[in-house]
Amino acid sequence: MGKGRGLSRAERLSEMKRLYVQRAFSDAEIAERLEIDRTTAYRDRIALEQEYPFVEESPGRYRIDRSRLVSEVRLNPHEALFLYLPARRLLRQTRFANVHVVQAVEKLAACLQQPMTERLLQLSTSVLKQQKQPQRLSILEQITMAWLNQRKVRITYRALRARRPLIHTICPYLIEPALWSDSVYVVAYSDIARDIVPFKLERIEDAVTTLETFDIPDDFDEQQLLRHTWGIWLGDEEPVTVRLRFMPGEVTRRVQETVWHPSQQITLLDDGGCEWQAQVTDWREMLPWVRGWGAGVEVLEPLEFRETLMGEARALAERYGWHVSSVPTPTGSTTLHDFFGG
């Protein structure tokens, strides 16, 4: 064998540690991977075992037990910033005393530089002062461990419009954050739906992990599954084209600052506005986002989406005592005059 691809012993031990954290290796596999002889691989593993919690996963194959490993992350300031920012957002969006969030951020903070560390620690203290919700925390723990250990879970789930909850036995395939809110979903196969369904964690009223295991299908492709979703809404429908026209000025500039959807296309218009287009599985998921732009956006298509917003605009006008015209709004109109009848 060679000299381990030119690595020093310290570099070789660091690389071995990284590999053992990922999965189990035999001494022969490590020797082949690092281009060293098997005796060296054995001696280096024994040296690592003095510092790190090794387990023998199967005869002659070893790995580092991640559950007992204290991370030694080293970050430069630029790397640290892009962990600080989502950690800060996580703390600000945590609405109950979640001890796991606090402990995770505290461990991360130890790897950062000032003032990042201080800012995170101050904010994490405020999270612990929020209301305790032990049942909700327990549900999160059950779902997390079931996902990691591939165990089926029996959940009591109340959908948003449901009068009563339903009991599902689910196989958690993925835990996924919603892009445009602080919600978290477990994407799972449901025995009731007989399909892959997103369950919002906040709507799970109870969770019990079973002893029954499951395998994630080889053809489960989360990237393909979520490719046309706006948030986390899954479905078998073909994606539809959503076209929006944004008004000139600040609205158009703001739209251009962010990638709102992987398939988006933005076309600048002569009047200073822009047309935004994307392929989306279900436009109903976009309703809160489009509402947030107010009169700064007009839905061009699909027609059902446009008519839904027109109906909401008329209802809102009536709520505030405006006279609403019975004349249909022209497709090209964007003024309040058309909605309120002049």
Structure report:
The protein is built from twelve helices and twelve strands. Helix 2 (27-34) crosses helix 3 (38-49), helix 4 runs parallel beside helix 6 and helix 5 (99-109) runs antiparallel to helix 6 (116-128). It has four domains: 9-68, Winged helix-like DNA-binding domain superfamily/Winged helix DNA-binding domain (Arc Repressor Mutant, subunit A, Orthogonal Bundle); 77-128, no CATH class; 134-221, SH3 type barrels; 240-340, no CATH class. The strands form three sheets. It has a five-stranded antiparallel β-sheet with strand order 7-6-5-4-8, covered by helices on one side. The chain has a four-stranded antiparallel β-sheet with strand order 10-11-9-12. A three-stranded antiparallel β-sheet has the order 1-3-2. Helix content is 38%, strand content 22%. It has helices spanning 9-22, 27-34, 38-49, 77-93, 99-109, 116-128, 134-149, 222-226, 250-256, 287-291, 303-319, 336-340, and strands spanning 25-26, 54-58, 61-64, 151-157, 166-177, 184-190, 195-200, 204-213, 240-246, 265-268, 274-280, 297-301. It has 342 residues and is of the alpha+beta class.
Shape summary: globular
Number of β-strand runs: 12
* Domains (count): 4
Class from helix and strand fractions: alpha+beta
Binned strand content: 15-25%
What is the averaged pLDDT score? 87
- Series of secondary-structure elements, N-terminal to C-terminal: HEHHEEHHHHEEEEEHEHEEHEHH
DSSP summary: helix tally: 12
Question: Strand order across the biggest sheet?
Answer: 7-6-5-4-8
Give helix % range: 25-40%
